[in-house]
Amino acid sequence: MRKVKIRLLWAGFCLLLALQFAGCVSSEKFYGEVEASRQSAYRRWKNGRDNQKQTEAVISGAVTMQDCLKLALTNNKTLQRIVQEKEFARGERLKSYSAILPSVAVSADYLRKDKVASIGIPGGGLTITMGDVDNYSAALVVTQPLFAGGSIPARINAARLFSLLADETVRSAVENLIFEASRGYYDVLLNQHLYEISADAVRLAQANLDNANQKRRAGVASDFDVLRVEVELSNFQAELIRNRNAIKVAKASLLKVMGISQDSDYTLSDKLVYVPLNVPMEQAVETAYRNRPDLYGSEIDIKLQQERLKIARSRYWPVISGFYQTTRSKPDPHNATVIDWGKAWNAGISATLPVFDGLAREGEIVQQKAILKQSQIDLIDAEETALFELTRALFSIQDANEFVESQRLNLVRAQEGLRLAEVGYREGTNTQLETIDAQSALTTARANYYQAIYSHVVAKLALQKAMGVLAKYEPVSTGGDLAWPETKDDSRAVPASSSVKAEQELTK
């Protein structure tokens, strides 16, 4: 019977070992599973396109800037990934409670002995058996930390600070996303205006070519005149193609930022708006120091590292814990001669003082001090970066203001120049080439005017991002207050459908 039990034990051990090895998978099998998953993903995408069912949201119709930002904050995959930092921080906070809460463990053991100890009584022929060949036990152990050299509160504080740092990480990601989505929206608007300008130029060039052909047939225009107009038309057509492609790329890029399906068909309802902005440097710096998430994150990181340094230094102190253990076993734990279940308990306090650990504590403290110094340097660098970005943004706004004003005047001049050239051409004092040059100059002036407005709008976005106020929420939200601070009510809206007549109204 004893040999049978030993064989059963060996068989069970071999079976467990075989199951462990059976759970191991070769690299080739892993790669095959990944390849099959990719093929399955492609089939899902293809079936979705065929059935007009998308895993991503599909939009259509007019989209405002607010719609764009809401869609981006809801669907952007990069932001969704970064938001998981908050869950990671919540896990760290839950883990930190283990430093102060008791730990409870349950264990069970089975022990098979080859021979049971026994005591023979001389003269009586009596033998007392101590224990049994089959031994069973189950135990409940409760351990309560009492003192750990200050590391207990430091671990809890570190977890709270880590949670705050995750909040600032998410806030920074929201700021960046709002900036990218807004700039992408304006990219589409700009390219639409440039496309419309190119389309107008192509229509004018085609009309000039038709007129030149008629005059050549009438004998009042040369082949050179026709060739010159044909070259001008070809150049405008090339620009029209480039701008049309730029619209497609800009709209696709905006869809990617919004996390929306590329099969979406939408239009933009907002306009490029020129609103002069004047923010003093001192006010901009104060706003940035009070709002930028990277500055808050650097401050929190310093405090977090100070707590981690406390944890490293706590290893020089003893660790004191209270414990309680209750055991139920067979044979009886109090009397090994009784082959029956019994139970026992014990409780006490334990203290462990590390005397020497091979300089591990000293090395850890040196590392944590260095990381703390790095965090302090990072804060200084973040402040310098904020000042640089604010200075750059304010200079960009100032330059953009001058750019807009100069191009508004230039647009007026180009319009007047074209008018004079057309009058002179009708009266016979100007040539058709001079009229074509005036039309080309107006096309360039119109494009530069929209480029100037776009540059001003993006510069304001950059300033608001540098001040950390693109998204104001407490403490973390998926929305944001997008109002411009200190904004002067002097806006000049650029219509979505541009025309020379509308631009004339703008420049009055």
How would you summarize what this structure contains?
This protein is α+β, with helices and mostly antiparallel strands and 508 residues long.
Structure description:
The protein is of the alpha+beta class and 508 residues long. The chain folds into 2 domains: 81-101 and 150-316 and 358-506, Outer membrane efflux proteins (OEP) (Up-down Bundle), CATH 1.20.1600; 102-147 and 319-352. The protein has 11 helices and 10 strands. The protein has helices spanning 2-22, 27-50, 65-75, 77-96, 151-218, 223-258, 281-291, 293-313, 360-427, 432-467, 500-506, and strands at 60-63, 103-112, 117-121, 126-130, 134-147, 265-268, 272-274, 319-330, 342-352, 492-494. A 4-stranded antiparallel β-sheet has the order 2-5-8-9, with no helix packed on it. Strands 1-6 form a two-stranded parallel ribbon. Strands 3-4 form a two-stranded antiparallel sheet. β3 and β4 form a beta hairpin. α3 (65-75) crosses α5 (151-218), α4 (77-96) runs antiparallel to α5 and α7 packs across α9. It is elongated and about 150 Å long.
Topology overview:
Blueprint: H1 2-22, H2 27-50, E1 60-63, H3 65-75, H4 77-96, E2 103-112, E3 117-121, E4 126-130, E5 134-147, H5 151-218, H6 223-258, E6 265-268, E7 272-274, H7 281-291, H8 293-313, E8 319-330, E9 342-352, H9 360-427, H10 432-467, E10 492-494, H11 500-506
Parallel strand pairs: 1-6
Antiparallel strand pairs: 2-5, 3-4, 5-8, 7-10, 8-9
Helix pairs in contact: 3-5, 4-5, 5-6, 5-8, 5-10, 7-9, 8-9, 9-10, 9-11
